[in-house]
Write a structure and sequence with these properties.
Number of strands: 14
Helix content: 40-55%
Structural class: alpha+beta
Distance between the termini: 72 Å
Order of helices and strands: EHHHHEHHEEEHHEEHEEEEEEEH
Strand content: 5-15%
Number of helices: 10
Strand order of the largest sheet: 6-7-8-9-14
Radius of gyration: 26 Å
Largest sheet: 5 strands, antiparallel
Length: about 400
């Protein structure tokens, strides 16, 4: 039978009442986190957003019900509700999403989602304790005030930290934001974005405004969780052109695959595929130390396409360090992305891809989210030189249109 939670002599309350109030405070904090991320989850897939909103409202309603009638049914409901949410979290961080565009791609861990899960675990443990113990022992009313104040204060501090810097699933980092000077007044309608066309010296042709999430294959997502849709300023357009032109000037000497290998570039994806990525570890470490990932003289990575005539340089790829800066000199014309489905092995690079047919990585490798990266293309793919990505078949077809030195296969 559930413990009474009414006041005794006016100076005491039951210990169960204290615990229930503290659990309600914690549950409200978890609902705030779910409300905060619902919008970006809707942008990714409608079912993800619905799950976040339903979970948030159920946590709010449970808090109210537990405070109003702290009997066994609400406590069981609170324990089962939060256990289900925690189970979903564990699955998405270990196995991957089970539906939607992120299916089988594991989600990254962030401070905000980790905190939310920890708080939900506290609610589960608290409900279980109340169900299993005699919690009607009276305590002084001052202890109620102290316990709820301490719980509210600690929870508020942690919640504030999560909302400000909760990681990839919580907020867009300042470094990934559109450059200073943009404002809501400069939001660019999709039709207007198609009018942007900027000439470059790259064989890729003119810069056009890449559509948000353009050519985003399964296992890819933007480095920022907030869609970049602000109209580039005149200065940002000029900066985008300078980046493309400088990238082509800096990387054109590596049209020769032999020259790239001599400079220290080594394949980090399996050789012989239609598109092969090369990495220069020395350049990567040097730019990471300087916190200057957009070094056009020393691009960290080069991308080659295997055509019937041999390997063709198709892009420079800039890679920042984990947690490093992601500058966008061209605003929304220069966006960063990450991969969530790659199997990485120390010293060997990418050795596999997590798919529905192959849901686990090969032995000796692990599925990890890559650091943010940005392509600058040197072949005419749809979207222009600063397009987010393109299918391998399109890249190979575009490479066949570009002349270059005679190379063997990459």
């Amino acid at each position: 039978m559930m413990m009474p939670m009414h006041d005794g002599d006016g100076q005491t309350v039951s210990r169960g009442r204290v615990v229930v109030i503290c659990l309600a405070i914690i549950a409200i904090a978890t609902s705030v986190i779910h409300f905060a991320v619902a919008g970006e989850h809707f942008a990714e897939y409608w079912a993800y957003g619905v799950f976040m909103l339903v979970t948030a409202w159920l946590q709010v309603l449970w808090s109210v019900a537990a405070l109003a009638r702290p009997t066994r049914p609400p406590l069981w409901a609170g324990m089962l509700l939060n256990a289900g949410v925690v189970a979903v979290y564990v699955v998405t961080r270990t196995v991957g999403d089970v539906i939607g565009p992120g299916r089988h791609a594991t989600e990254p861990f962030g401070f905000g989602d980790g905190l939310c899960t920890a708080l939900e675990a506290v609610v589960i443990a608290g409900c279980a304790w109340l169900l299993a113990s005699q919690a009607d022992r009276p305590v002084r009313r001052g202890q109620l005030i102290t316990a709820t104040a301490a719980t509210g204060g600690v929870t508020a501090v942690l919640l504030s930290a999560a909302l400000v810097a909760g990681g990839p699933d919580m907020v867009m980092s300042a470094s990934a934001s559109p450059s200073a000077g943009t404002s809501p007044a400069t939001r660019m309608p999709a039709m207007e974005s198609s009018r942007i066309r900027l000439a470059t010296t790259s064989p890729a042709g003119d810069i056009t405004m890449p559509a948000p999430n353009m050519q985003m294959a399964p296992g890819m997502r933007m480095a920022s969780s907030v869609a970049c849709d602000t109209r580039p300023t005149a200065a940002q357009r000029q900066a985008a052109v300078r980046l493309v032109d400088a990238s082509w000037k800096g990387a054109s000497k590596y049209r020769s695959l032999a020259a790239a290998k001599a400079a220290g570039y080594r394949p980090v994806t399996p050789a012989g595929l239609p598109v092969v990525h090369y990495l220069n570890v020395s350049f990567y470490l040097a730019t990471a130390m300087r916190r200057a990932p957009l070094d056009t003289a020393e691009p960290q990575s080069l991308v080659y396409a295997n055509t019937p005539g041999g390997a063709v340089l198709v892009a420079a790829m800039y890679i920042t360090s984990p947690g490093g800066p992601t500058p966008q000199p061209g605003g929304c014309l220069t966006q960063w992305h990450v991969h969530t489905n790659l199997c990485l092995a120390s010293g060997r690079g990418v050795v596999g891809v997590v798919t529905a047919a192959h849901p686990t990585c090969p032995p000796g490798s692990a599925n990890r989210v890559t650091p943010p990266m940005m392509h600058v293309w040197f072949v005419p793919i749809p979207g222009g030189p600063t397009a987010i990505d393109a299918a391998d078949a399109r890249v190979v077809r575009a490479a066949e249109q570009v002349s270059g030195p005679r190379n063997g296969p990459a």
